[in-house]
Amino acid sequence: MDFEQWQVDINAGEARHECGLIIRVEGDPANPSSVDPNNFPKSLSFVDQARLLRCGMEALASAAQSGGYRSSTGPSPTRVKSKTAQSLEEKARLFAENPDKPKRAVLSLKRRKPSEPASSD
Questions:
Q1: SS3 of residue 17 by DSSP
Q2: pTM of the entire predicted model
Q3: Which of 27-36, 82-91, 96-105, 106-115 has the highest mean pLDDT?
Q4: d(CA 118, CA 49)
Q5: Is residue 17 pLDDT above 90, yes or no?
Q6: Strand partners, 7
Q7: Please, are residues 28 and 72 in contact by the beta-carbon 8 Å criterion?
Q8: Cα 59 to Cα 80: distance, rounded to the nearest angstrom
Q9: Of 39, 43, 59, 72, which residue has the fewest beta carbons closer than 10 angstroms?
Q10: CA angle, corner 71, sides to 9 and 15, nearest 5?
Q11: Are 23 and 6 in contact (CB under 8 A)?
Q12: DSSP symbol at 61
């Protein structure tokens, strides 16, 4: 088995090996906040599973680095987000842009001059 044979989709935070293993990460691919390996072949020993996982993580990190992905030490890091997080952000954006959402009173922190009467907005 070739441990270095990976197909990497850095935007999805995913690496796929020809044996069927899929590694998904969240956060910085070089230092992820979450790693989710799926579909280890049953015929692999634990040592080979660990080696395959390590090689997959290295493939993700090198693809991120060569693809212009900035690490968390860079000036403007980009984060890989899970599909759930992307879905929730999309729902929040749609709600924020909804013109039919209820209007709320706006609290103003501007000071008024003592001679001006309070206005009722």
A1: strand
A2: 0.57
A3: 27-36
A4: 71
A5: yes
A6: 16
A7: yes
A8: 15
A9: 43
A10: 20
A11: no
A12: H
Please report, as a single letter, which amino acid is at residue 100. D
The answer to whether the beta carbons of residues 59 and 52 sit under 8 Å apart is no
- How does strand 14-17 pair with strand 22-28? antiparallel
C-beta of residue 69 within 8 angstroms of C-beta of residue 10: yes
Cα torsion through 40, 86, 88, 38, rounded to 10:
0
To which H or E segment does residue 70 belong?
A: none
Angle made by CA atoms 81, 90, 66, in degrees to the nearest 5: 30
Closest to 61 in 3D by CA, of 41, 83, 35: 35
State the pLDDT confidence band at 47, using cuts at 50, 70 and 90. Answer: very high
Buried b / exposed e over 43-76, threshold 16 CB at 10 Å, is eeeeeeeeebbebbbbbbbebbeeeebeeeeeee
pLDDT for res 75: 39
